[in-house]
Amino acid sequence: MSALIQSLGPHAGFILASYAAVAVILAGLTLAIVRDHWAQKRALAALEQRGAGRRRPGGEAP
């Protein structure tokens, strides 16, 4: 690890902090997307349970 920090030069702290910030932001966005996916699946299941069906190709009513 020491060799890595030395190879980055005097700005090693800034570079490593930037990579850490990007990792945290990407993890947060991924978590938000997964949670939204779960919520959309639950909402769709609730709608289908109440009788709202999916549309057929061509927009025909059932």
UniProtKB/TrEMBL annotation:
Pfam families: CcmD. Required for the export of heme to the periplasm for the biogenesis of c-type cytochromes. Coiled coil: none annotated. It is a single-pass membrane protein. Keywords: Cell inner membrane, Cell membrane, Cytochrome c-type biogenesis, Membrane, Transmembrane, Transmembrane helix, Transport. The gene is ccmD. It comes from Bosea minatitlanensis. The keyword Transmembrane helix applies. The chain crosses the membrane at residues 12-34. Belongs to the CcmD/CycX/HelD family. It is found in: Cell inner membrane. This is Heme exporter protein D. The keyword Phosphoprotein does not apply.
